Each structure stands twice: as structure tokens, then as C-alpha cells.
Amino acid sequence: MSLPGRTPCIRESELFSAKSLVKSFDAFRALGPLSFSFGTEHVLGVVGPSGCGKSTLLRLIAGLEAITWGTMELDGDPVTGARSDIAVVFQEPRLLPWASVRDNVGLGLWHLPRAQRQEAVDAALRRVNLFDFADALPKQLSGGMAQRVGIARALVAKPRLLLLDEPFAALDPLTRVKMQDHLLDIVGDEVPNVLLITHDIEEALVLSDRIIVLDGPPARIVRDIAIDLPKPRHRTGAPFQAHKAEILETLFGAADLAA
Question: Which residues form the signal peptide (predicted)?
């Protein structure tokens, strides 16, 4: 378990580390001090109650908010603002309604020669199974398809770290499950490590190799759990439900302490 303000043991293979991270908005402390690192996991899940500081953490890593105190590093290099090797997928896909799927995915690649840009975009669309919809407009897509376009847009630049902020929260339950399964299919050796922010404990358990449980504000780590279950995971199986009960017990216990 990682205690607030305490730096966990650093692994030689770590990809990302945060040390004594603090974020305040005037007199209100939203996060920290918070320290953690990860490296070999494909998917690190971050769960916690609404308003605890999960999205604030993601925005700090993405460079969308300035750190009040502390440090972050990616591959040993300081993270002090937005970086091309860190990509974000938000709850809404935020597509340009007048642009085709292909143009939406290639928005950040206009500096490349046309042939190289098209090759990269086509590869990203194939990865999310949307190559046949490359010329479609966003209004012609379902909610799940639009979110896959957002994922392709994040992947096309081949970032080292992919940040997902409640990426399936706006979808209906069936589409949400399908999108979780689809994400499992594309996460692998050629896909960057993923940090997933979600309030959905089952979603975190389906997707994550490790889960950090936050409580707050200010956001603090109250549990750090390795999820050593084979994927795809049996959602109603005893080991899966045991992990779910462990996380729920942690959250209710943290809420009782804060009361």
C-alpha cells in the first residue's frame, strides 16, 4: 500500500513516476502530496469517488494543469507541460463535425508529407477497426465508433503514454462493455502503456493490470493493488468479485475515516 506523501520503491524499468505531487487552486488543495510510479503494467487503473481528484491527476500528467509542488518524469525526463509522447482520450471524443474520420485522426500530423500522414492514419484506423469509415463524418457514427476515432487520433502519433479520462462513461451499458473488450484487443506490445481514470470499479478490474485507489480531496492513495487475473476476465467469477469487494471496502473505509 502506498501512503500519502511517501515515494514507493522505484523500479529500474519504470516508465512514469510522480513524487510528492501537489495541486492547489488558491487555498483549496485538490491533490496530494501523492507519489507513485509504474512501468511494466500495460494498463494502470485509477479509481475513486466523484470529486476525489482523479481527473486533476490526469490533467497534471497531460500538462493541462500546472503542478503546484512536486515532480513528474516520463522515461527519466521531467514532465512540465504538454508533450507529444503523452496522448489523452476524454469522455467526449471532441471530433470536428465538418471533418471526415480520416481528417479528424490526422489532425496533429499535418507537418508530415501527405503519403506518410495517410499511412499513419490508415494504420491507426485499422487498429480500431474503422478503416472502412475513413470518409464518414462524425454525425454518421455511433457513440462507440466516435470514441474509437478519438482513440485512433491519440494512437496515431505513437505516444509513450496514453491517458484515458472516463472514456466510456457517456456510452450505453452494452456499448460500454463492447468498448472495454475492444480496448483489451488493442492494448499490447505496439500500444503505449495506459493510465485509465474511471469511477467504474468493474471497468477498472476488466482492463487494468494494477489499480490505484484514490480518496479525497485532496487526492491521496489509499490502496495500490496488483490485479493478477488472466485476460479477458470473468466478471462474475470469485477472484474478480473478491477484488471488487476489496476496493469497495477500501473506499467505504476511507469515507468513514473522512466523516
Answer: none
